UniProtKB/TrEMBL annotation:
Pfam families: zf-C2H2. Residues 11-29 form the C2H2-type domain. This is C2H2-type domain-containing protein. It comes from Rhizophagus irregularis (strain DAOM 197198w) (Glomus intraradices). Keywords: Metal-binding, Zinc, Zinc-finger. GO terms for molecular function: zinc ion binding.
Length: 252
Protein backbone atom coordinates (compact mmCIF):
# COMPACT_ATOMS: atom_id res chain seq x y z
CA UNK A 1 0.00 0.00 0.00
CA UNK A 2 1.34 3.37 -0.92
CA UNK A 3 1.25 6.16 1.56
CA UNK A 4 1.22 9.91 1.36
CA UNK A 5 4.97 10.25 1.55
CA UNK A 6 5.74 7.66 -1.15
CA UNK A 7 8.61 8.77 -3.40
CA UNK A 8 6.40 8.93 -6.49
CA UNK A 9 3.95 11.23 -4.73
CA UNK A 10 0.86 9.12 -4.95
CA UNK A 11 -2.09 9.84 -2.76
CA UNK A 12 -4.29 6.85 -2.12
CA UNK A 13 -7.72 6.57 -0.56
CA UNK A 14 -7.26 3.75 1.94
CA UNK A 15 -10.91 2.74 1.62
CA UNK A 16 -11.54 2.43 -2.12
CA UNK A 17 -7.92 2.29 -3.30
CA UNK A 18 -8.28 5.20 -5.73
CA UNK A 19 -4.93 6.86 -6.39
CA UNK A 20 -4.49 10.60 -6.93
CA UNK A 21 -1.42 12.36 -8.31
CA UNK A 22 -1.88 15.39 -6.10
CA UNK A 23 -2.86 15.87 -2.51
CA UNK A 24 -5.63 18.20 -3.69
CA UNK A 25 -7.24 15.28 -5.55
CA UNK A 26 -7.38 13.20 -2.39
CA UNK A 27 -8.68 16.19 -0.44
CA UNK A 28 -11.48 16.64 -2.97
CA UNK A 29 -12.26 12.92 -2.67
CA UNK A 30 -12.48 13.31 1.12
CA UNK A 31 -14.86 16.25 0.62
CA UNK A 32 -17.21 14.17 -1.56
CA UNK A 33 -17.19 11.44 1.11
CA UNK A 34 -18.10 13.99 3.74
CA UNK A 35 -20.84 15.29 1.45
CA UNK A 36 -22.14 11.73 0.90
CA UNK A 37 -22.64 11.41 4.66
CA UNK A 38 -24.62 14.62 4.99
CA UNK A 39 -28.39 14.38 5.40
CA UNK A 40 -30.29 14.66 2.10
CA UNK A 41 -33.67 16.28 1.58
CA UNK A 42 -35.06 12.82 0.75
CA UNK A 43 -34.20 11.50 4.21
CA UNK A 44 -36.36 11.78 7.30
CA UNK A 45 -35.34 11.16 10.88
CA UNK A 46 -36.26 7.75 12.22
CA UNK A 47 -36.53 6.90 15.91
CA UNK A 48 -33.56 4.90 17.21
CA UNK A 49 -35.81 1.89 17.70
CA UNK A 50 -36.67 1.80 14.00
CA UNK A 51 -32.98 2.00 13.07
CA UNK A 52 -32.23 -0.81 15.50
CA UNK A 53 -34.89 -2.94 13.81
CA UNK A 54 -33.30 -2.25 10.42
CA UNK A 55 -29.94 -3.41 11.78
CA UNK A 56 -31.52 -6.64 12.97
CA UNK A 57 -33.14 -7.22 9.58
CA UNK A 58 -29.79 -6.82 7.82
CA UNK A 59 -28.05 -9.15 10.28
CA UNK A 60 -30.83 -11.71 9.79
CA UNK A 61 -30.38 -11.74 6.02
CA UNK A 62 -26.58 -11.95 6.24
CA UNK A 63 -26.75 -14.85 8.70
CA UNK A 64 -29.30 -16.68 6.61
CA UNK A 65 -26.60 -17.09 3.97
CA UNK A 66 -24.10 -18.62 6.41
CA UNK A 67 -24.63 -22.34 6.08
CA UNK A 68 -22.80 -25.47 7.05
CA UNK A 69 -22.19 -27.03 3.68
CA UNK A 70 -19.19 -26.07 1.56
CA UNK A 71 -21.33 -25.39 -1.50
CA UNK A 72 -22.50 -22.18 0.19
CA UNK A 73 -19.07 -20.57 0.46
CA UNK A 74 -17.72 -17.94 -1.92
CA UNK A 75 -19.05 -14.62 -3.11
CA UNK A 76 -22.65 -13.78 -2.41
CA UNK A 77 -24.94 -10.89 -3.20
CA UNK A 78 -28.04 -10.22 -1.15
CA UNK A 79 -30.80 -7.65 -1.48
CA UNK A 80 -33.09 -6.59 1.33
CA UNK A 81 -36.08 -4.27 1.24
CA UNK A 82 -34.94 -1.05 2.86
CA UNK A 83 -35.93 2.61 2.62
CA UNK A 84 -33.34 5.30 2.01
CA UNK A 85 -33.94 6.72 5.49
CA UNK A 86 -33.47 3.31 7.10
CA UNK A 87 -30.22 2.76 5.20
CA UNK A 88 -28.93 6.21 6.03
CA UNK A 89 -29.91 5.77 9.67
CA UNK A 90 -27.76 2.65 9.94
CA UNK A 91 -24.77 3.60 7.77
CA UNK A 92 -24.38 7.36 8.15
CA UNK A 93 -20.75 8.25 8.76
CA UNK A 94 -19.58 5.17 6.84
CA UNK A 95 -20.92 6.00 3.37
CA UNK A 96 -18.17 6.19 0.76
CA UNK A 97 -20.10 7.10 -2.38
CA UNK A 98 -23.33 8.90 -3.05
CA UNK A 99 -24.53 9.13 -6.64
CA UNK A 100 -26.74 12.23 -6.92
CA UNK A 101 -28.11 11.29 -10.34
CA UNK A 102 -29.52 7.94 -9.19
CA UNK A 103 -29.67 8.64 -5.46
CA UNK A 104 -27.72 5.44 -4.76
CA UNK A 105 -25.21 4.90 -1.94
CA UNK A 106 -22.17 2.68 -1.43
CA UNK A 107 -20.07 1.73 1.62
CA UNK A 108 -16.83 -0.26 1.44
CA UNK A 109 -15.48 -2.25 4.38
CA UNK A 110 -11.94 -3.46 3.84
CA UNK A 111 -8.85 -4.17 5.93
CA UNK A 112 -8.01 -5.53 9.33
CA UNK A 113 -10.62 -3.45 11.22
CA UNK A 114 -13.51 -4.03 8.83
CA UNK A 115 -15.25 -6.72 10.87
CA UNK A 116 -15.20 -4.73 14.09
CA UNK A 117 -16.44 -1.66 12.22
CA UNK A 118 -19.31 -3.59 10.69
CA UNK A 119 -20.18 -5.28 14.00
CA UNK A 120 -20.31 -1.87 15.59
CA UNK A 121 -22.56 -0.46 12.84
CA UNK A 122 -24.91 -3.44 12.96
CA UNK A 123 -24.77 -3.64 16.77
CA UNK A 124 -23.99 -7.35 16.79
CA UNK A 125 -20.61 -9.02 17.39
CA UNK A 126 -21.89 -12.15 15.69
CA UNK A 127 -23.40 -10.42 12.67
CA UNK A 128 -21.04 -12.29 10.35
CA UNK A 129 -20.54 -15.63 12.06
CA UNK A 130 -22.57 -18.78 12.61
CA UNK A 131 -21.53 -21.91 14.49
CA UNK A 132 -22.28 -25.52 13.67
CA UNK A 133 -21.60 -28.95 15.11
CA UNK A 134 -18.07 -30.39 14.93
CA UNK A 135 -16.58 -26.99 15.82
CA UNK A 136 -17.35 -25.56 12.44
CA UNK A 137 -17.78 -21.86 11.97
CA UNK A 138 -19.07 -20.25 8.78
CA UNK A 139 -18.35 -16.57 8.57
CA UNK A 140 -18.17 -13.42 6.49
CA UNK A 141 -14.59 -13.10 5.31
CA UNK A 142 -13.40 -9.56 5.98
CA UNK A 143 -9.65 -9.77 5.99
CA UNK A 144 -6.85 -12.09 5.04
CA UNK A 145 -3.23 -11.64 6.01
CA UNK A 146 -1.24 -10.59 2.93
CA UNK A 147 1.26 -13.37 3.71
CA UNK A 148 -1.44 -16.02 3.61
CA UNK A 149 -0.76 -17.96 0.42
CA UNK A 150 -4.20 -19.48 0.43
CA UNK A 151 -6.91 -17.27 -0.90
CA UNK A 152 -9.45 -20.03 -1.12
CA UNK A 153 -12.74 -18.96 0.46
CA UNK A 154 -13.18 -22.42 1.93
CA UNK A 155 -10.01 -23.73 3.55
CA UNK A 156 -11.88 -26.73 4.96
CA UNK A 157 -12.93 -27.80 1.52
CA UNK A 158 -9.45 -27.16 0.15
CA UNK A 159 -7.63 -29.35 2.65
CA UNK A 160 -10.24 -32.00 2.08
CA UNK A 161 -9.65 -31.82 -1.68
CA UNK A 162 -5.93 -32.13 -1.20
CA UNK A 163 -6.33 -35.30 0.79
CA UNK A 164 -9.00 -37.05 -1.17
CA UNK A 165 -9.05 -35.88 -4.74
CA UNK A 166 -7.71 -37.99 -7.52
CA UNK A 167 -4.66 -36.18 -8.93
CA UNK A 168 -5.32 -37.75 -12.31
CA UNK A 169 -8.58 -35.91 -12.58
CA UNK A 170 -7.15 -32.53 -11.77
CA UNK A 171 -5.70 -30.69 -14.77
CA UNK A 172 -2.03 -30.03 -14.24
CA UNK A 173 -1.05 -26.57 -15.46
CA UNK A 174 2.63 -27.51 -15.52
CA UNK A 175 1.94 -30.42 -17.76
CA UNK A 176 -0.07 -28.20 -20.10
CA UNK A 177 2.84 -25.82 -20.27
CA UNK A 178 5.17 -28.71 -20.97
CA UNK A 179 2.92 -29.86 -23.78
CA UNK A 180 2.88 -26.52 -25.50
CA UNK A 181 6.61 -26.00 -25.19
CA UNK A 182 7.58 -29.37 -26.55
CA UNK A 183 5.05 -30.58 -29.07
CA UNK A 184 5.37 -34.06 -30.37
CA UNK A 185 7.42 -33.65 -33.59
CA UNK A 186 5.65 -36.62 -35.15
CA UNK A 187 2.30 -34.97 -34.83
CA UNK A 188 1.07 -32.11 -36.94
CA UNK A 189 1.29 -29.08 -34.67
CA UNK A 190 -2.05 -27.43 -34.15
CA UNK A 191 -1.24 -23.75 -33.62
CA UNK A 192 -4.74 -23.00 -32.38
CA UNK A 193 -4.64 -25.66 -29.77
CA UNK A 194 -1.17 -24.62 -28.69
CA UNK A 195 -2.39 -21.10 -28.24
CA UNK A 196 -5.34 -22.25 -26.19
CA UNK A 197 -3.08 -24.28 -23.94
CA UNK A 198 -0.63 -21.44 -23.58
CA UNK A 199 -3.47 -19.12 -22.78
CA UNK A 200 -4.94 -21.48 -20.21
CA UNK A 201 -1.55 -21.96 -18.57
CA UNK A 202 -0.85 -18.24 -18.50
CA UNK A 203 -4.29 -17.53 -17.12
CA UNK A 204 -3.73 -19.98 -14.32
CA UNK A 205 -0.47 -18.35 -13.36
CA UNK A 206 -1.52 -14.72 -13.46
CA UNK A 207 -4.99 -14.96 -11.95
CA UNK A 208 -5.16 -12.21 -9.35
CA UNK A 209 -7.06 -12.83 -6.14
CA UNK A 210 -10.09 -10.58 -5.72
CA UNK A 211 -9.73 -8.09 -2.89
CA UNK A 212 -11.45 -9.20 0.28
CA UNK A 213 -14.03 -6.58 1.10
CA UNK A 214 -17.68 -6.09 1.96
CA UNK A 215 -19.65 -3.69 -0.17
CA UNK A 216 -22.96 -2.49 1.20
CA UNK A 217 -25.12 -0.06 -0.70
CA UNK A 218 -28.57 1.21 -1.31
CA UNK A 219 -30.42 1.60 -4.57
CA UNK A 220 -33.86 2.34 -5.84
CA UNK A 221 -35.37 -0.06 -8.33
CA UNK A 222 -37.98 1.45 -10.60
CA UNK A 223 -40.11 -0.47 -13.06
CA UNK A 224 -42.98 0.43 -15.33
CA UNK A 225 -45.64 -1.23 -17.43
CA UNK A 226 -46.76 -0.55 -21.04
CA UNK A 227 -48.75 2.46 -19.85
CA UNK A 228 -45.61 3.86 -18.29
CA UNK A 229 -47.07 3.51 -14.85
CA UNK A 230 -44.03 3.45 -12.59
CA UNK A 231 -43.62 1.53 -9.37
CA UNK A 232 -40.47 1.45 -7.28
CA UNK A 233 -38.86 0.32 -4.06
CA UNK A 234 -35.59 0.84 -2.23
CA UNK A 235 -33.17 -1.98 -1.49
CA UNK A 236 -30.06 -2.43 0.57
CA UNK A 237 -27.60 -4.73 -1.18
CA UNK A 238 -24.67 -6.53 0.43
CA UNK A 239 -21.79 -8.17 -1.42
CA UNK A 240 -19.51 -10.37 0.65
CA UNK A 241 -17.45 -13.55 0.72
CA UNK A 242 -18.33 -16.53 2.88
CA UNK A 243 -15.65 -18.77 4.35
CA UNK A 244 -15.50 -21.68 6.80
CA UNK A 245 -13.09 -22.70 9.51
CA UNK A 246 -12.65 -24.97 12.51
CA UNK A 247 -12.94 -23.27 15.87
CA UNK A 248 -10.84 -24.41 18.76
CA UNK A 249 -12.25 -23.21 22.04
CA UNK A 250 -12.68 -24.35 25.62
CA UNK A 251 -16.45 -24.32 25.71
CA UNK A 252 -16.81 -28.08 25.53
ZN1 LIG B 1 -12.13 6.37 -1.67
Amino acid sequence: MSSNNAPCNKFECKICGKIYKRRSGLTRHAMTIKEANSVKSTIYDLPEKAIEETRQVLVYHIKERLKQHSKHVGNVHIMVNCTESQFFGVFKGHIHNYYPRTGNYKCIFKGVDSYSTLSHILGDDNCGAKYFLQHQKTFVLTYQLPSNPSNHPDPLQKSCLYQESDPLQEPDPLQELHLCQEPDPLQEPDPLQDQTLMHAARKQRTRKPKPIQIVIGWKRKSKSDVRNIVYSSGFAFINFTISRTKVVDNLY
